[in-house]
Design goal:
Number of strands: 0
Shape: globular
Helix content: over 70%
Largest sheet: none
Number of helices: 7
Low-confidence stretches: 1-14
Structural class: mainly alpha
Length: about 200
Amino acid sequence: MIHDDSSPQEQTPVPVRQSLLSLFSVFFRIGLFSFGGGVSGWMHQETVTKRSWIDNNQFLSGLALSQILPGANVSNLAVYIGHCVRGWPGALVALCAVLFGPTIVVMIFAEIYPRLVAIPGFHAAMDGIAVAAVGMIIRMGWISARHSCRSFVPALIAGITFVAVEFFHVQLPLLVVVLAPISIALSWFEGSDHA
């Protein structure tokens, strides 16, 4: 008879494999109702906070990658999260889901937009949606700063990036080419000092 000495507390829980349908459902809703931006904040809420499909570190790594790679940040982040959850099928499903709803809505809006702008209060409604999106972006910035800038090097790189973009209008590709190797080298030296 085989005796298992491991207690329930010592056994690590096996992550629940998410269905492609649930992945599609979440990303379809995100894509369909993400008016005015702030999508990364909503993705964080749905995939990290609410469902625990990935953790904060995984999400922030994906967010950083999605912003430096070519293409739309939302699409890149959907591919990254989908891949983390279900591999390449998950990446494909998440990408299709996040793009499907907005594509249909944009085609419909292109047809009816001239009539919508004539409705009193339409522009005010769009402004309200934009303000809510700004709130989501600020929330995502706060989460990113809180988790990423815990030591001197990340805080320094974040500060340099902010100053370079805000005051000197430096383009992102140039910043990535210059600051990425510096950031990696400084982080490596900082880590080797503590070893």
